[in-house]
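Training component of the fellowship. As part of building independent skills, the fellow (R.M.) carried out the full modelling exercise for a liganded target. The chosen ligand was 6-O-phosphono-beta-D-fructofuranose. The inputs are recorded below so that the supervisory panel can assess the work.
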Amino acid sequence: MSETIAALSSRAAWEGLQKHVATIRPQQMKEMFKSDPERGTRLTAEACGLFLDYSKNRVTDETLKLLVELAKQSGLEQHREAMFTGQKINTTENRAVLHVALRAPQSESIKVDGEDVVPEVHKVLDKMAKFADRVRSGAWKGYTGKRIRNVVNIGIGGSDLGPVMAYEALKHYAQRDMNFVFVSNVDGTDFAEAVRGLSAEETLFLVASKTFTTLETMTNAHSARDWAMTSMRDERAIAKHFVAISTNAEAVAKFGIDTENMFGFWDWVGGRYSMDSAIGLSTMIAIGPENFRAMLDGFHAMDVHFRTTPLEKNLPVLMGLLTVWYTDFFDAQTQAILPYEQYLKRFPAYLQQLTMESNGKHVTLDGKPVETQTGPIYWGEPGTNGQHSFYQLIHQGTRLIPCDFIGFYKTLNPLGRHHDMLMANVFAQAEALAFGKTAEEVKAEGVPEALVPHKVFEGNRPSNTILAEELTPKLLGSLIALYEHSVFTQGVMWGIDSFDQWGVELGKVLATKILGEIESKDEPQVMHDTSTANLIRMYREHK
Ligand code: F6P
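Fellow's submitted model of the complex:
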């Protein structure tokens, strides 16, 4: 598909945007709002229970028109259809990209290599639901007959970040007499602290790994097995205390887990797009199959919106295009994710993998160097904590940092005036960023002359505000899918493969080599630069 699409810089809309940006740079949002009384209600869009206000961006109608034209000239609609119909758009791995099939209703049919994958998806969901119900009700017993009280998910990257984020996000709906713990780091402290105080007889380990070869996960899984055996002293206990979530049945069996106790998924699900596959088993045990299915419905609703809504009203498309706009025309390096919802505290961390592993690419699909900057750095913290930490730089620093504010009309934990205060802060921050405070306004407050420059807020700093009714499983699904498809939109503009991750490989290979050197009794066969060789020598001497 990429062959038929012109290089980014020669797409007419791109050229148009390059000229156009010169007219936008000097414009102040303050003036844009003044001259257009409808702007705050017009530049909004709504879908799947999510209301997006994108009026506080450095754009005009002309900008949006050009961005949408760019999307069309970049083949967004064709690429989108290629994804939804199971074409192998992850070209460097020759794989389809079908996380959308994970939430497709049973009535749909999506084919990969001529085979409908939807029935398989539902088969696994049913198996997960049966298992989750048994664990939740206590029907599934540990080896010594005790019910499971602790669920430990062992996984890393996509096999960890999604499950942790979803567990935290949906804790309100979780079975509270159970304990959910997540182990990811190969740092032994992670495992040691996770199982501290737990009884092995009441603990179920979910070993989650798409490949079932990831060093960190396998190391933690072996340590978990040793830990469980220390108290239960019988290999037969493994069948009651370990289940696997993977695409690699052979490696699962080799580890000693009965493949009856394995929940499968497929190579067309990328790790960072897998939290709604069997990788979400911990989520399902926590919130129950019904809530999990509601979350899938939320994902699916956003999939339908993304696939069918005109680009100008399409939430993920608008958000993706705005990210391209700031990244490539304003040299923005980062994008802040600021959820004003404590339950979304791990959402920025989850989005880091989703966005940065997807769009941190330096060549286009045909292997040529990209012509522009690609994926920005995503980061963030829940409000209002960030306000007392890094917001200073967003307000008065020298960098342009587009922000996504996320808030809810209703809190799940009503407590006095807390929620009104929280939401007042969302609106205040977005307002302050956009409109700032001039020297005249500062002076009028009687501020001494010398302090005036320090108290001026330049303003003109862009943000989106996303509002929703309440954080439910369904809403969470739609919110995640919103970002998934925004990432997709960005990737299509840049002409990159958003679904591979070759950049993580070199470090893995070198770590394996260095581990051998660290553990060997022989003199290191120094094949490194002098810095690395010296650091390894120091470690060997002092460990
Ligand atoms: O190394 C990166 C990565 O491959 C991620 O893309 C993935 O989510 C993570 O490792 C974990 O992989 P696995 O699920 O195969 O253990």
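The panel noted the following from the submitted structure. Residues 384 and 425 are 7 Å apart (CA to CA). The chain has 22 helices and 13 strands.
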